[in-house]
Design goal:
three-stranded mixed beta sheet; 275 residues; alpha/beta
């Protein structure tokens, strides 16, 4: 099938009212959608609730993608490829036309966000982040080893690495999406069964790490063609005022993934521990 004939849909996940660019390929979807087969009431899954709904209820298409109302993938031809994300005011509708998307997808099965250097291992970053517990990630790792042993090496490499895939955002072929969701939600459901005291948003946080493990495995063992692009974070996505200039200047002088940013984070962490 020619790329020009393939069906593509990108869902922009939200839990609130927001401004969506007027394009033919972006479709808003509520994470708490309660029709059909859904997990809308399970808030620990965050935006994964919408991905679950599409997996279970939507008719097949050629490509499916997911953005977040505050962050998209940067589909510009000349996007800066060494910085994981940049901050801008609002989405640019010209980046999300069917023509631009087909051009970006030509020859690829999957478009993922650039991994973000974090200056420490994924294990350490997860355990030290607010609302995260290392024991939850350890439980997920054990589930992978027990139920998907072929993924063990990818999991060990990713969790001991110093880069992360953030956002639960991507664009991929429908069949690849189907197999990813089967793997992802099977692991998270088993995690839920083993963790009666899970914290709020835990499954969403774990989903980000699981995407990194799954994608790492696919890159090394799967027969897929892939590329990585930066993320775009928006400061003006509703009618409220947001500190655009402050965030823009901070990212300018302390770029995401940079040594300067890691030093700032290390300094703040040290100050916090000294209190």
């Amino acid at each position: 099938m020619r790329m020009a004939d393939e069906t593509i849909r990108i869902y922009v996940i939200t839990h609130k009212e927001f401004s969506l660019p007027a394009t033919e390929i972006l479709t808003p979807i509520r994470s708490d959608r309660r029709t059909g087969d859904h997990i809308a009431t399970e808030e620990a899954y965050c935006e994964l609730r919408a991905q679950y709904w599409i997996w279970k209820n939507q008719e097949a298409m050629d490509y499916v993608g997911f953005f977040h109302f505050r962050r998209y993938l940067d589909l510009r031809k000349r996007a800066v490829r060494h910085i994981p994300y940049h901050i801008t005011w609002r989405p640019d509708p010209s980046l999300y036309t069917i023509g631009r998307l087909r051009e970006s997808l030509a020859g690829y099965d999957l478009i993922a966000p650039l991994p973000e250097p974090i200056g420490e291992t994924v294990w350490i970053r997860y355990g030290e982040s607010s609302g995260h517990r290392r024991k939850d990630l350890e439980t997920v790792f054990r589930i992978i080893v027990e139920n998907y042993p072929e993924y063990r090496s990818a999991a060990e490499s990713y969790l001991n690495g110093t880069e992360e895939y953030y956002g639960n955002i991507y664009i991929m072929k429908w069949q690849l999406f189907q197999s990813y969701c089967q793997w992802l939600f099977d692991i998270l459901r088993e995690f839920d069964r083993r963790t009666p005291d899970r914290l709020g948003n835990t499954d969403g946080y774990l989903g980000e790490r699981l995407f990194g493990i799954w994608f790492s495995y696919q890159k090394n063992h799967g027969d897929i063609k892939w590329t990585e692009v930066p993320r775009i974070h928006f400061c003006c996505y509703d009618d409220k005022k947001h500190p655009f200039l402050a965030l823009w200047f901070f990212n300018l002088f302390f770029p995401p993934g940079s040594k300067r940013r890691h030093r700032i984070r290390g300094f703040l962490k040290k100050r916090k521990n000294e209190r």
